[in-house]
């Protein structure tokens, strides 16, 4: 297998020999200033690599020789804490003084401690009842930021011919703005009910939970005429696990431990554009 080592800073040459030896590789090739590819690496060395890379703030990934980004047809992404740096619902709650309470529920849900996502979302949204809907625009303008490397990753994926899907347990107010801003192909998210300019504390229609995320991925692949194995799926929380399991390559981005353990690849340090260096 090839082993790709990445760093958020220029990769020190001092790491090359130890990593080749540790992975039992046959040699190494620079990818750019931030990454190297080690040929002939042994996946059984994963535990030792985990320790070394964790100690030195590096990310690693085993990749089949000859694999190319153009082998895939779709990149599917979660929104909150994956494509963007924030959890939108927590920031909305801040405008009614309930960020700490809502964020604690969000965190427990994403760690997988609250098993029923529908119940978790319903509880959190109910706390927003009566809030002026203008708070959504303020969250978007003042607090929403793209994750590092997001635009470069999307540009590289599109150049390789991949289509894009943003599927979120968050809200359409944000996914639709990002769809326009980033020229995304497909989106699916929850719709907040707004009456007389205020949030009612309810979600309209079907809640986009883990099962709906996975179904959305399958339906999008069907539209494109590709199998699920030709989808790259990126996420961070437990409600992403089902759709990540449907893809051919799953990427845990600064993810909860349960997600990191299940993913093909974990990016704990580099940006989303780390995807481009894998191939």
UniProtKB/TrEMBL annotation:
Q: What's a Pfam family in this record?
A: HAD
The family database entries (InterPro entries) matched by this protein are listed as: DUF4072 (IPR025138), HAD-like_SerB (IPR050582), HAD-like_sf (IPR036412), HAD_sf (IPR023214), PSP (IPR004469)
Recorded GO molecular functions are: L-phosphoserine phosphatase activity; magnesium ion binding
One GO process term, biological-process aspect: L-serine biosynthetic process
Q: Where do the catalytic residues lie?
A: 78, 80
**To which pathway does this protein belong?**
Amino-acid biosynthesis; L-serine biosynthesis; L-serine from 3-phospho-D-glycerate: step 3/3
User: Which Enzyme Commission numbers does its entry carry?
Assistant: 3.1.3.3
Listed cofactors:
Mg(2+)
What catalytic activity does the UniProt entry give for this protein?
Answer: O-phospho-L-serine + H2O = L-serine + phosphate; O-phospho-D-serine + H2O = D-serine + phosphate
Which interval of the chain is the signal sequence?
none
DUF4072 domain location is: 3-49
This protein's GO CC annotations: cytoplasm
Q: Kindly report, in one word, the top-level EC class recorded for this enzyme.
A: hydrolase
* Similarity annotation: Belongs to the HAD-like hydrolase superfamily. SerB family.
Q: Can you name this protein?
A: Phosphoserine phosphatase
- The organism encoding this protein is Trinickia terrae
């Amino acid at each position: 297998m090839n082993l790709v080592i990445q760093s958020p800073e220029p990769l020190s040459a001092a790491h090359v020999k130890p990593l080749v030896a540790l992975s039992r590789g046959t040699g190494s090739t620079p990818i750019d200033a931030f990454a190297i590819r080690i040929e002939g690496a042994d996946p059984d060395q994963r535990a030792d690599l985990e320790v070394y890379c964790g100690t030195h703030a590096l990310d690693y990934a085993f990749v089949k020789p000859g694999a190319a980004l153009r082998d895939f047809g779709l990149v599917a992404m979660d929104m909150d804490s994956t494509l963007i740096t924030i959890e939108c619902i927590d920031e909305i709650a801040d405008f009614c003084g309930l960020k700490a309470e809502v964020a604690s529920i969000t965190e427990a849900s994403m760690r997988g401690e609250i098993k029923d996502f529908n119940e978790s979302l319903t509880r959190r949204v109910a706390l927003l009842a009566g809030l002026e809907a203008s708070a959504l625009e303020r969250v978007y303008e003042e607090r929403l930021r793209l994750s590092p490397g997001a635009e470069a990753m999307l540009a590289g994926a599109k150049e390789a011919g991949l289509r894009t899907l943003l599927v979120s347990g968050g809200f359409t107010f944000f996914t639709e703005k990002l769809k326009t801003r980033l020229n995304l192909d497909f989106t699916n998210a929850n719709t907040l009910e707004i009456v007389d300019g205020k949030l009612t504390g309810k979600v309209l229609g079907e809640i986009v939970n883990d099962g709906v995320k996975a179904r959305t991925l399958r339906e999008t692949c069907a539209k494109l005429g590709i199998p699920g194995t030709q989808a790259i799926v990126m996420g961070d929380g437990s409600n992403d696990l089902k759709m990540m399991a449907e893809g051919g390559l799953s990427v845990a981005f600064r993810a909860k431990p349960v997600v990191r353990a299940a993913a093909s690849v974990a990016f704990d340090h580099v940006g989303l554009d780390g995807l481009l260096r894998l191939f």
